[in-house]
From TrEMBL, chain A:
This is Electron transfer flavoprotein subunit beta. InterPro entries: ETF_a/b_N, ETF_b, ETF_beta_N, Rossmann-like_a/b/a_fold. GO terms for molecular function: electron transfer activity. Residues 23-211 form the Electron transfer flavoprotein alpha/beta-subunit N-terminal domain. SUPFAM superfamilies: Adenine nucleotide alpha hydrolases-like. Belongs to the ETF beta-subunit/FixA family. Pfam families: ETF. It comes from the Bacteria. PANTHER family: ELECTRON TRANSFER FLAVOPROTEIN BETA-SUBUNIT (PTHR21294), ELECTRON TRANSFER FLAVOPROTEIN SUBUNIT BETA (PTHR21294:SF8). It comes from Neolewinella xylanilytica. Keywords: Electron transport, Transport. The keyword Transport applies. The lineage of its organism: Bacteria, Pseudomonadati, Bacteroidota, Saprospiria, Saprospirales.
Automatic annotation (TrEMBL), chain B:
Belongs to the ETF alpha-subunit/FixB family. It comes from Neolewinella xylanilytica. Binds 1 FAD per dimer. Residues 2-193 form the Electron transfer flavoprotein alpha/beta-subunit N-terminal domain. This is Electron transfer flavoprotein alpha subunit apoprotein. Its cofactor is FAD. Keywords: Electron transport, FAD, Flavoprotein, Transport. Pfam families: ETF, ETF_alpha. One of its GO terms (biological process) is fatty acid beta-oxidation using acyl-CoA dehydrogenase. GO terms for molecular function: electron transfer activity; flavin adenine dinucleotide binding. InterPro entries: DHS-like_NAD/FAD-binding_dom, ETF_a/b_N, ETF_a/FixB, ETF_asu_C, Rossmann-like_a/b/a_fold. FAD binds at R206, S231, R232, G262, I263, S264, G265, A266, I267, Q268, H269, N283.
């Protein structure tokens, strides 16, 4: 099986997001980056499991600047065979990113293109569906189980309050949610081997901007907490009803 | 024209559809254009979407729409938008929307905002939509630069107001491709509001100490008519199902009321819940970080406080 796993970079989860003084940008001073958890924990690992059971190759792909190579190397250390980075100097919007991935993957006959459920930075859940549309592939979002039998896939996806099971013939694209696989920690041997695995850098294709981020704001800070006597829950109910007006 | 995909919930138009249509109405008012709704299938009650602001409801009825296939739905919405000359298309940011929004934006090469949480505005001459980013740690103002624009709306984002009367319902014919996917099982728990749509949520953390103690959480949830949630370690230990896990790597929610018991308030947990309107924290440790993000706090043992709160709620509800 020929498998492609698209991975993005995101600020480490404990990052306190700060804005630049003019509010136009995120202040990235001191921000540490990681591979987006859904991509690393579930998409990449399920792809590796399929390769281990049925043979094939796992390629990881990132659209981003050269700084992202350390994140890509981590994917290689976890077990991907090779990697591609589509070289852009700045992160751009979902449609631009999807266009780059689609143009790279077109004609390369991947059986499955894996995505994460969403990036934990821009939280769009769009890139995978966009790539699927550009390549005319079926796409299943929020996959929590994937079983293969020859060229036929059975995918379980999360839906509100339940789940849906779908049968579909490859080639397909899907996004990985919690449950699809268990996180793997790279070992020393993997880390050493990753240094020698191929990482191809490809030029981006031109694509116009369809969106632009004009600026950012932060959520309003909460005022100080109102403490309620633990013996007096009638008072809490009264406040929730009369003051907060939520019950 | 603003065209909104009115999605039924288990065969009827409920809160999801009402909020979407009302959001579309408000968007149309900003632009000074008409608001039309699109219904895929023969769900009854389409004319009643008028009450939330749709002037006309266009209905596409076809056997190909009976089971969900994202590619087929995308063609239906894209072609309807083209035929009707829609310039803004609105979808839900839920499991359906997450399978369609990206496809639709790619098909129409339209700028999109996925997971918007406020009515668009014209700002500095640009059509601008706000959405939470970094799992709610910040909001981005996104300008959409294309003629046709796609927005998906996060649940519980606006106050739903009933405006108009009945909508005119007309049928629309669209050629649909054959589906490549086959739904072999569709299973939803009834009787419980799914987390992303829930207005009231009661959530438990590691402080609840094991699945055998969860009735303190579920009893309160039942008394309130709330949905239950949990922190990540709770789901990771299989004390509760994965779909209850809220936070940065779980479900992001914005209910009117979030009650957190035995949850410390780690930054990754807060990221997914801090846009809740009112937060109540119950923790025995007065130094627990969650108190800084709370509106109301109770310092105490949850095994005493929660049953007391449940009783108080029952008394209040009479
Ligand atoms: C530091 C930083 C700054 C940014 N600045 C901007 C900005 O100024 N303007 C702007 O519009 N966007 C910006 N972005 C976001 C931008 O890079 C894209 O929007 C992002 O790549 C896709 O995010 P999304 O939430 O749309 O992805 P989703 O649709 O949520 O992503 C789903 C999946 O698609 C795949 N994927 C997503 N992105 C990539 C990628 N780059 N390479 C390979 N696979 C990918 C992953 O599998 C991911 O799990 C920034 C991101 C970062 C980390
Ligand atoms: C990459 C990454 C992503 C993550 N994503 C998420 C996420 O999406 N969601 C999430 O929740 N976490 C996430 N986490 C985990 C997060 O960092 C915390 O570890 C987790 O939220 C802690 O869960 P908790 O509050 O239930 O447990 P703890 O931190 O152990 O807190 C338990 C609390 O219960 C209180 N308590 C104990 N007994 C009682 C009692 N009898 N009465 C009252 N209070 C009591 C204690 O004082 C304590 O504050 C993530 C971590 C990482 C590294």
């Amino acid at each position: 099986m020929k498998l492609l796993v698209c991975v993005s970079k995101t600020p480490e989860t404990t990052t306190k997001i700060q804005l630049t003084a003019d509010g136009k940008n995120i202040d990235t001073t001191g921000v540490q980056y990681i591979m987006n958890p859904y991509d690393e924990w579930y998409a990449l690992v399920r792809a590796l499991e399929l390769k281990e059971s049925a043979g094939g190759t796992v390629t990881i792909l990132n659209v981003g600047p050269a700084d992202n190579d350390s994140i890509i190397r981590k994917g290689l250390a976890i077990g991907a065979d090779d990697a591609v980075r589509i070289d852009v100097t700045d992160e751009k919007d979902s449609l631009f990113t999807a266009r780059q991935i689609a143009e790279y993957a077109r004609g390369k006959d991947y059986d499955i293109i894996f995505f994460g459920k969403e990036t934990i930075s821009y939280n769009a859940s769009e890139v995978g569906a966009m790539v699927a549309e550009f390549l005319d592939l079926p796409y299943i979002g929020d996959a929590i189980a994937l079983e293969m039998e020859g060229g036929s896939a059975t995918v379980t996806r999360d839906i509100e309050g339940g789940e849906e099971v779908i049968e579909v013939a490859t080639p397909i694209a899907l996004s990985a949610a919690k449950g699809l696989a268990e996180q793997r920690i790279p070992n020393m041997r993997g880390i050493m081997m990753a240094k020698r695995k191929p990482l191809e850098v490809v030029a981006a294709v031109d694509y116009p901007d369809t969106t632009r981020i004009a600026g950012y704001t932060k959520p309003e800070e909460k005022g100080s907490v109102k403490l309620i006597d633990p013996e007096n829950m009638d008072e809490l109910v009264r406040l929730l009803h009369e003051e907060a007006k939520v019950i | 024209m603003v065209l909104v995909y009115a999605e039924p919930t288990n065969g009827a138009f409920k809160k999801v559809a009402h909020e979407l249509v009302n959001y579309a109405r408000k968007t149309a008012d900003v632009l000074g254009v008409e608001c039309h709704a699109l219904v895929l299938g023969d769900t009854p009650g389409a004319e009643a979407l008028g009450a939330y602001g749709a002037g006309t409801v266009h209905r596409v009825i076809s056997p190909q729409l009976e089971a969900f296939d994202a590619a087929v739905y995308t063609v239906a919405i894209a072609d309807a938008a083209k035929k009707l000359g829609a310039t803004v298309i609105i979808l839900p940011h839920n499991s359906t929307g997450k399978n369609i929004t990206g496809r639709l934006a790619a098909r129409l090469e339209a700028g999109s905002v996925a997971g918007a949480n406020a009515v668009p505005m014209m700002k500095d001459g640009y059509f601008t939509v706000t959405k939470p980013v970094f799992s709610g740690k910040a909001f981005a103002d996104v300008q959409l630069l294309t003629d046709v624009k796609v927005i998906s709306l996060a649940g519980n984002s606006i106050r739903v107001e009933e405006t108009g009367g009945e909508a005119t319902v007309t049928d629309l014919a669209i050629d649909l491709p054959a589906a490549k996917t086959k739904v072999v099982k569709h299973q939803v728990a009834t009787g419980r509001v799914p987390l992303p749509e829930a207005e009231l949520v009661v959530s438990g953390g590691r402080g609840v100490k094991g699945p055998e103690h969860w009735d303190v959480i579920t009893d309160l949830a039942e008394a309130l008519g709330a949905t239950t949630a949990c922190s990540r370690p709770v789901a990771d230990s299989d004390w509760r199902p994965h779909h209850e896990h809220v936070g940065q790597t779980g479900v992001a929610i914005r209910p009117n009321l979030y009650i957190a018991a035995g949850i410390s308030g780690a930054i990754q947990h807060l990221a997914g819940v801090n846009n809740s309107k009112t937060i109540v924290v119950i923790n025995k440790d007065p130094e627990a970080p969650f108190f800084k993000a709370a509106d109301y706090g109770v310092v105490g043992d949850l095994f005493e406080v929660l049953p007391r709160l449940t009783e108080a709620v029952k008394k209040f509800k009479g």
